[in-house]
Amino acid sequence: MPKISVGLAMTLLIVGNLVAVFSDALIKTLDADTAIFQFVFFRQLTAVLILTPFCLSTSKKSFIDGLKWHALRAHIWLFGAIFMVIAINSMPLATANAIFYAAPLIMLPMAMMLFSEKLTKHSVAAGMLGFAGVLVVIRPTELNWAAMAALVVAVTLAANNLLIRKLPTHQTVAQTLLLTNLVGMPAAFGLAIWEGQPWDWAPLLTAAGSSAFILVYAATCVIAYRSAESNKIASAEYSGLLGAVGVGLLWFDEVPDLAMLIGTAMIILPLVWLARIEKKKQKQLLQTEL
User: Fold this and answer.
1) Rg (CA), the chain
2) pLDDT 10s digits, 16-72
3) What is the pTM of this model?
4) Exposed, middle or buried, 288 (CB in 10 Å: 0-12/13-18/19+)?
5) CB within 8 A of 173, min separation 6: which ones?
6) Taken in order 226, 231, 232, 235, is the CA torsion positive or negative?
7) Cα dist from 216 to 10, 110, 132, 140, 147, whole Å
8) In angstroms, rounded to a whole number, what is the distance separating the alpha carbons of residues 199 and 85?
9) Smaller CB count within 10 Å for the chain: N or C?
C-alpha cells in the first residue's frame, strides 16, 4: 500500500470517525432487552457477508499471513464491541463518544512503549488539550459503570489502531477487515450461546447497518495508521465528536449544553492546530530535499 501524506491520513480519519457515529446511533436504537452478545455476533456475521465479495478476486496465496496478529486484534475488537453497546445504551451519544475519544491520548504512551515513537511537544499538547476537552464534556463527578465501559472501549480502540502496524502490508484493506471479523466469530458465537437468550433475528438488519458504517471507519484506520505515525494523526480521531453531538441532537433530542460546546471546541481546535503544524513540516521537508 503506497504511503500517503499526514494531511490525507488525518482527513481519512475525520471521514471515518464521522461515519462511525451512525453506527453508534443505530446501536442506540436497540431495545433495552436486546441480547448484547447475540447482537455483537450478528455484527460480525454481517461484516463477513459484506466483505466477502470484495475478497473473492484477490490473491488467496498469502491470505492467512500474520494470522496471530489478526486474531489478537479480532478479540480486542470483540471485547470493545461488547462494552461499546453497553456504554452507548447507558448514556447520551455525545457523552459516550467523548469518552471513546480518549483513545488518541491513550495511543501516545502505547505507541512510545510498543514502537518507540518519539512524542513531539505538539502531539503531546494536542492530546492533553483534547483529553481536557473530554473531561469538560463529561464533567466526571463519579465513575459509574457506563463511563467505565466507555473507557474500556477507548483502550481497545487505541490498541487495535496501533496493532494495525503489525499486520502484513500486502493484504488489502478488505482482506484485513474480513480476517479481523472472521477469526473473532467463534468467540462471539460462543458468548452468544453462553448468554442463554432465545435467538432473536429482529436486530439483524440493525447489526448489518451498524457493521457497514463501522467498516468504513475501520478501513480508514487501516489506511491511515499504515501510512503515518500514530502520534502525528491520532488527534484526528476527535473529529467524530462533532458528528456525535449533531446526531444526538437531531436523532435523539440530546441538546448539548455550554460545557459540551466548550469541550468540543477544546477537542477540535488542537486537531486543526496539529494538522497545520504537520503540513508546514512536510512542506519544509520537501523544500529541503529539492
Assistant:
1) 19
2) 888 888 998 999 999 888 999 999 999 999 999 999 988 877 666 666 788 889 899
3) 0.80
4) exposed
5) 1, 219, 222, 223
6) positive
7) 15, 24, 28, 31, 26
8) 18
9) C
